[in-house]
Design a protein that fits this description.
Blueprint: H1 2-14, H2 33-36, H3 46-59, H4 67-76, H5 79-91, H6 99-113, H7 125-141, H8 154-168, H9 171-185, H10 205-216, H11 219-229, H12 251-269, H13 274-292, H14 297-300, H15 303-310
Helix pairs in contact: 1-3, 3-6, 5-7, 6-7, 6-8, 7-9, 8-9, 8-10, 9-10, 10-12, 12-13, 12-15, 13-15
């Protein structure tokens, strides 16, 4: 299956349209996506392009033929292209906040940690600096979290930023995420998990919060906090997707995958509940995996990333 994910990711890096461009024009010029984003101008949107690069970095050590991956990454992860991406983020500080920022920092951490990918690490430094600076400013000014089931979800982004910052030795950002997570979520109780999902969710707000808090609380704190927040995780059932050709409703296939990924991580933190949680994970994987390699670009531009994670891959460091 990993080779199929390699093929999907490489195809994403070759696909420049359709592309959803989110750009605030400050003059009357017409800009191409490639001009604005010389590193991340393919796939369907900027953040999906970023995490498809990350997927290739993660799959590089096990690839049957690594040369196409190296060639694709060499072409995009250049010093000039990444400096331009960093400059764009600084000039448009709400662009891809927080989801795209988090994925870009995770990409940088994976590159830094991989012996096979270290050749691109120095080129990513300006992007890392930009995201760290922007994230610290955002966290200082953000008064309340966003509890959606889509890209704007604060807890999901904080979890990714935390893992990436820790791997990159960005201690100031790690501490800022820890402090903000505790301030926003430590007193939460009795989350209404039965109200999920909304019709376009690819994230569970409840699970995303729990997955963040397992990182920032001590083991004893988390063991006390989780049952008060989410008493019965095994009550979750896979979500049926009735009209998958609609990209928005297709998000729900991603929800099955992100649930599987986060539930597996929570089961590792709760060994006494692991057997029941693993059965819930398996049910969600069975429901979602057939859609990952469907050949439909609505799915192919992003689902393989979350399938890799749901099947045991890790954001950074060694896989489980």
């Amino acid at each position: 299956m990993s080779q199929r994910y390699v093929e999907i990711a490489l195809q994403n890096l070759r696909t420049e349209s359709p592309h959803q461009l989110d750009h605030v024009a400050r003059d009357a010029r017409a800009y191409s996506v490639r001009e604005l984003h010389p590193a991340f101008h393919t796939s369907y949107d900027w953040h999906s392009c970023v995490h498809m690069h990350w997927l290739l970095v993660r799959l590089l050590p096990e690839a049957t033929d690594p040369e196409p991956i190296r060639k694709a990454l060499d072409q995009n992860l250049t010093a000039d292209a990444l400096a331009a991406e960093a400059a764009y983020l600084r000039s448009s500080p709400s662009f891809e906040r927080p989801y795209g920022w988090a994925w870009a920092l995770v990409l940088a951490a994976a590159v830094r940690q991989s012996p096979d990918a270290a050749r691109w690490s120095e080129a990513m430094s300006p992007l890392v600096d930009a995201i760290v600076d922007l994230s610290l400013e955002w966290l200082q000014g953000a008064a309340r979290p966003v509890r959606s089931g889509v890209h704007s979800n604060s807890a999901f982004a904080l979890a990714l930023l935390y893992d990436a910052a820790e791997a990159l030795g960005q201690d100031k950002l790690t501490q800022a995420v820890r402090d903000k997570a505790r301030a926003w979520f430590a007193e939460d109780r009795e989350y209404p998990l039965q109200w999920e999902p909304s019709g376009e969710d690819f994230l569970s707000p409840g699970l995303s919060e729990a997955d963040l808090m397992r990182r920032v609380l001590t083991e004893d704190e988390f063991a006390e906090w989780l049952p008060a927040f989410l008493p019965d995780l095994t009550a979750l059932r896979p979500v049926e997707v009735r009209y998958p050709v609609d990209g928005r409703q297709g998000h729900l296939q991603g929800l099955n995958l992100t649930r599987a990924w986060q539930l597996a991580a929570l089961s590792d933190a709760l060994p006494e509940r692991e057997p029941a949680l693993r059965a819930t994970v398996a049910a969600h994987l069975d429901a979602a995996l057939p859609s990952v390699t469907s050949g439909d670009f609505n799915h192919d531009h992003w689902l393989a990333t979350f399938a890799y994670l749901a099947q045991g891959g890790a954001l950074v460091g060694p896989s489980r």
